[in-house]
Amino acid sequence: MRRRTREMDGREGHESADTGGADRGVTRRRVLELGVGALAAAAVTPELLRGGSRSVMNAQADVVMKRIPRSGEEIPAVGLGTWQTFDVGSDRTQRTALAEVLRTFHRLGGQVVDSSPMYGTSQEVLGDLAVETGLISDLWVATKVWIDGQSEGIDQMQRSMALLQRPSHIELMLVHNLRDVEVHLDTLEEWKAEGRFDYIGITTSSNRQYGAVEALLEAEPERIDFLQINYSLAERASGERILAMAEERGIAVMINRPFAGGRLFGAVRGRSLPEWAGSFGCEAWSQFFLKYVISHPAVTCVIPATSDPEHLVENMGGGRGELPDEATRRLMEEAIG
């Protein structure tokens, strides 16, 4: 039986949170009842997307793309995290399920995948499955360095890239939770100049580190291409100053904890989506939460993690179609409290 964890998206244990009814999220039956169309039906039944390029084109037609300020490159606004969900070791059953998650992610226009050496076997599993599925060249890969010391950091990054099956190049390397940040940024700058990384940056998921993040953005913004930070309807503190600082300095923003570790699903358990959420294409609470995040003008992408195919489809719907305007964002905040 496939493992069911309390994932980064946090929906496990909140069976009715997405719709306020008996069905969890966008089930196959619910998709067809709602008449969402060929895209959603194909997303939930991936074999329909294997039929040819037209299906793939339609599946990706209205994906929200965001621009990376330093380069102008555009990436899809909704990516895929791997914390807990890809930490399955050599378990073949769980790897098979994750391979289908990865294929569906790609078919629905996904590119950005994020991992870290602190996520157990997630890097190894992601790398193996990217090769197995033939997607290794199509993914936009981010990972992190999380250790003290320059030589130790070099060893860790080399190992991470090898595990990810990208030994000579990945798109983004970040200093995880600011650990030994000044030392590692020196190495990251050198490797970026050599072409091993396209972008470098820093991460945090704790407001206890916000002061240190602000200091770096103030003092050395030219060294940072990407900031990864927590932000959601339940954790809005980074939006009060840090996101604006990043935007002003031309730094891309990748968001972790978009569901506040599952707390948001608990907050709406048993509640139906507001009717007005349909005006910008929301069919599930997860999409409501994700569209709030990616509609912030400073945000480049968000990386919810899941090993559940139905949740993956829902999450990808959060990066499609219309986004809420500023007035609607205020309504969304009021709806959650």
Descriptive overview:
The protein is an alpha/beta fold and 337 residues long. The protein has a single domain (28-336), classed as NADP-dependent oxidoreductase domain (TIM Barrel), CATH 3.20.20.100. The chain is built from 13 helices and ten strands. It has an eight-stranded parallel beta sheet. α4 packs across α5, α4 packs parallel to α12 (309-317) and α5 (122-132) packs parallel to α6. It is globular, with a radius of gyration of 19 Å. Mean pLDDT is 86; it is low at 1-8 and 12-57.
* Number of separate helices: 13
Mean pLDDT: 86
Estimate the helix proportion, in percent.
25-40%
List SSEs in N-to-C order: HHHEEEHEHEHEHEHEHEHHEHH
Summarize the topology.
Layout: H1 28-34, H2 38-44, H3 53-59, E1 65-67, E2 74-76, E3 80-81, H4 92-107, E4 112-114, H5 122-132, E5 140-145, H6 150-163, E6 170-175, H7 181-193, E7 197-203, H8 210-219, E8 226-230, H9 242-248, E9 252-256, H10 263-267, H11 285-294, E10 301-302, H12 309-317, H13 326-336
Parallel strand pairs: 3-4, 4-5, 5-6, 6-7, 7-8, 8-9, 9-10
Antiparallel strand pairs: 1-2
Provide a compact summary of the structure.
By secondary structure, this protein is of the alpha/beta class. 38% of the residues lie in helices and 12% in strands.
